[in-house]
Design goal:
Layout: E1 22-25, H1 30-42, E2 49-52, H2 56-64, E3 76-79, E4 82-85, H3 86-97, H4 112-124, H5 126-130, H6 141-144
Parallel strand pairs: 1-2
Antiparallel strand pairs: 1-3, 3-4
Length: about 150
């Protein structure tokens, strides 16, 4: 496990306000755009920001955590400087948001190797299954303010 806030010491990661959680996701993916809308609805405090993988910050964060930004099948959720990846990121975010977000915790009933296998299959085929959408073009102004560019 990487030390909390380890990206702060990485000169390739641009400085950013990390006082609140950040979800790093594919801005071209329809399911990720849906996920961004769900974060916006479930995060009642309105603090979680969304960082497109395609941005310089998103690319640098993925690289810092050993993920390939050219193959953005991964989902990264930074909370209190700690990185949560892939399916575990989804579960952590759901737990953090509470309310309806707690429904994601039922997915813990699925053994982790199967969850990881399902996540990889979904992530690798997301464009074919769900199509493309432009996260940065979502019309909700409040959601737009959450996007780190």
């Amino acid at each position: 496990m990487t030390a909390p806030y380890s990206y702060r010491a990485d000169p390739s990661v641009p400085p950013f306000d990390d006082s609140a959680p950040v979800a790093v996701m594919d801005a071209d993916c329809a399911i990720c755009s849906w996920g961004a809308r769900m974060i916006h609805r479930l995060d009642r405090k309105g603090t979680t920001r969304i960082c497109p993988i395609q941005s310089p910050l998103g690319t640098a964060l993925l690289t810092h955590y050993g993920l390939n930004p050219q193959d953005p099948a991964s989902w990264l959720f930074l909370d209190q400087g700690q990185a949560h990846k892939d399916f575990e990121a989804v579960l952590h975010a759901g737990r953090r948001f509470g309310g309806w977000g707690h429904l994601t915790l039922t997915l813990r009933l699925i053994p982790r190797p199967i969850r990881d296998w399902l996540y990889i299959r979904l992530a690798r085929n997301r464009y074919r299954l769900f199509g493309r959408a432009d996260l940065c073009a979502l019309p909700d102004p409040a959601l737009q303010r959450r996007i780190l560019r």
